[in-house]
Design brief:
This protein is 21% helix and 24% strand. It has 429 residues and is of the alpha+beta class. The strands form 4 sheets. Strands 11, 12, 13, 14, 15, 16, 17 and 18 form an 8-stranded antiparallel beta sheet that branches. Strand 13 and strand 14 form a beta hairpin. It is globular, with a radius of gyration of 22 Å. The structure holds FE2/S2 (inorganic) cluster (FES) and fe (ii) ion (FE2). Fe (ii) ion (FE2) binds next to loops.
Length: 429
Amino acid sequence: MLTHAENELMCRVGPATAMGAALRRYWLPALASAELPEPAGDPVHVELLGEHFVAFRDSEGRVGLLDEACCHRGASLLLGRVEGCGLRCIYHGWKFAVDGKVLETPNVPDGKFKDRIRARAHPVREAGGLIWTYLGPAELEPSFPDWLWHSLPASNVLVTHHFVDCNYIQVIEGLVDSSHLGILHSNGLRASLDSDLGYATKVSGMQFDLAPRIEEEATDFGFHYAALRAGKEGGNAAEVRVTAFVMPCVVLNPNGDVATLIVPANDTRSRFFHVWWDPVKAVGEEPLRSETLRFVGLDRQSMQNFGIAADSTALERPSRLNRFHQNREAIRNGTSFSGIAGLVEEDVAASASGGAIRDRTKEMLSVADLAVGRLYRIYLESVRRVASGLAPVGLDTGVDLGRARGVNAQLPRSSDWRSLVPQHRKTAA
Ligand code: FES
Ligand SMILES: [Fe+2]
């Protein structure tokens, strides 16, 4: 449980907020590479931490991220034209390079004028199917995170994105909450018993113990937490699933080959990326690509039906007003527990149904929510650190991301789950 003030502090992310300042200290995934598929294609809108940007790829394939409002007199650069190595505003024709350099100002007689001004552009890095940006002070830019999947060819990486209409913490807390899996996702877990898809086989055991023991520990990057369940066969074995939360927005799933990255578009809308990777299997290509996406409900058709695709209209989006597209008849006739088709769609409904920014002054956390409590503390600690001139969690020690792991295994009950993450480095609680 948090006070109202703590909840507000944790959830508000705009430019003038304390959490906004903390989140702006990290590299953040802004959009998927697939949203800018070709050089000199159409610019796209990106909303991140309550600010509006335009992303474009110039004719050389370089990506730029500029403020959406033209620095001349504010026309939207979404209407702009990508011409060669720059983006031209259609109002007075000013043209900007990906780094914000002003290339042309055709309505200004002084040819040197353009050299004295600059558009607000943000550093961009493209890796592993995502385009990342850094919105913080230039002198505090951290090193770029080197994730496991960055070195793999595109054929071995699968990236998706969808939107959830609620605050980002609500989305992330669902990802560090193993105990909902066997209940909310009981349909999907049942189906996993009949599937030989890698994802399905790794999650199927969760349906046999609905009350896992949760343990967690703070680390230099955020925290690891473990869900320990009675094994399927009973006996002395425990089924252990260890999740890593890496500040500020990455959750490494215990399956070991999928990461979820959640960034606030604004205080009440979140962008959710999935990244699957496999050093051997071509998960980014057919048939694995479609099989994986269909199993979790992230295929194009499911996202459109449920209204969570980037181009879904406000009316199509799942909300309390349309009861999150829940099928009550399926609940009544016993064919579905949740009445919602798709693992991702169930999560969206559960997260967003708490309201745009959930009231945490009334919640009753239990031992099942130990990792959720840790999540709150890590965010609030980061805010406090930044407010007092220090680096937020995960940026102060030159964190080695190799220490963060998602992993699952059968262990003897007497074993310590930390043996599955030998690189785990505990920090003070
Ligand atoms: S507003 Fe963009 S060039 Fe004038
Ligand atoms: Fe879930």
